[in-house]
Design goal:
- There is one protein chain.
- With about 120 residues, the chain is mainly beta.
- The chain is built from no helices and eleven strands.
- Strands 2, 4, 5, 6, 9, 10 and 11 form a seven-stranded mixed beta sheet that branches.
- The protein is elongated, with a radius of gyration of 15 Å.
- The protein starts with a strand and ends with a strand.
């Protein structure tokens, strides 16, 4: 079993900052990538940013220059530093990971999602 525990969501004024964190635990053999998706009411879930275990990153154009994704591989934790927040950033943010779990037969790649954390940016 694998668990993703998210924290850091909340209410912030436009122009403010927020830092999200997500820690993975369980029968983890290795983590290929971790990242963040978000979904606003009436909109499709979209990729915000992702980072591989090697440190390569990718982020949505809408957040480039404002959001920074990072990770602590030793802690199986991914962070999302969000600066210059805008009302349009308001959404439920979901932690995501692509990892390899421990099995008696070896290992297997799986995707896991966090429960989501609400980020609300007021005008």
């Amino acid at each position: 079993q694998v668990q993703l525990v998210e924290s850091g969501g909340g209410l912030v004024q436009a122009g403010g900052s927020l830092r999200l964190s997500c820690a993975a635990s369980g029968r983890i053999f290795s983590i290929n990538a971790m990242g963040w998706y978000r979904q606003a009411p009436g909109k499709e879930r979209e990729l915000v940013a992702v980072i591989t275990s090697g440190g390569s990153t990718n982020s949505a154009d809408s957040v480039k220059g404002r959001f920074t994704i990072s990770r602590d591989n030793a802690k199986n934790t991914v962070y999302l530093q969000m600066n210059s927040l805008k009302p349009e950033d308001t959404a439920v943010y979901y932690c995501w990971t692509d990892l390899r779990i421990r099995l008696f037969s070896g290992s297997s790649w799986e995707e896991h999602w966090g429960q989501g954390t609400q980020v609300t940016v007021s005008s």
